[in-house]
Amino acid sequence: MENVVSLDNADSIKAKIICEAANGPITYRADLRLREKGKVIIPDIYANAGGVTVSYFEWIRNISHIRMGRLNKRYEEHRGEAIFKAIEQISPNKLPKDMINQLVYGANEEDIISSGLEDTMRVAFQEILEMREKYNLNNYRMATYAIALKKIEKSYLELGI
Questions:
Q1: In this structure, how many other beta carbons lie within 10 angstroms of the beta carbon of residue 98?
Q2: Do 84 and 61 share a structural domain?
């Protein structure tokens, strides 16, 4: 749904923070108007990165033919059990078995994907904040574009282009 928010309807938006959950939903002029009114716009290039990231994780899983977490799930569980056994050896108190089971449960594929997505989005947003501050950019969209251009530049330089 591109260009849904235009100069014609931008003034009717009451939200302080607007997250572009579609590709290009805000026109250029509406973007300017909204920012003039002090609105914060989370740009589509960032907001939609989660879906792209999860698709990438799925692609990695498919080419490896191994579900995420399979290689380390039992290791994590055994390590957690060993930690609790060590704690119980130095403590007079015993923890209930169901509590131990809940705490040592190894990560499944969904847990790992959620964790990877969270980390990716946090790191990306930190990068946006740093770019915005470093170059005194007045909005998140310009910062995301600047990051993209820097990454393209780096890629070209590494390829010798």
A1: 8
A2: no
User: Rounded to the nearest 5 degrees, what angle is found at the Cα of 18, between the Cα atoms of 134 and 36?
Assistant: 65
> Could you read off the pLDDT of 54-89 as tens digits, one per residue?
999 999 989 988 888 777 888 888 888 888 888 888
Give me the phi and psi of 155, to 5 degrees please.
-60, -45
Residue 101, H or E segment: helix 97-104
Q: Do both 46 and 75 map to the same domain?
A: no
Q: Residues, the chain, total?
A: 161
Neighbours of 68 (CB within 10 A): 21
With H, G, I as helix, E, B as strand and everything else as coil, classify residue 158.
helix
- Whether 33 and 54 share a structural domain: yes
Token representation of residue 13: 């938006």
Q: Are residues 12 and 53 in the same domain?
A: yes
155 part of a folded domain: no
Residue with tokens 């302080």: 16
Short-list 111, 109, 107, 106, CA closest to 80: 106
Report pTM.
Answer: 0.78
Strand partners, 18: 41
pLDDT digits (tens, 9 = 90+) for 96-121: 888 888 878 877 889 889 999 999 99
**Domain of residue 46, residue span:** 1-65
Q: What residue type is assigned to position 90 of the chain?
A: I
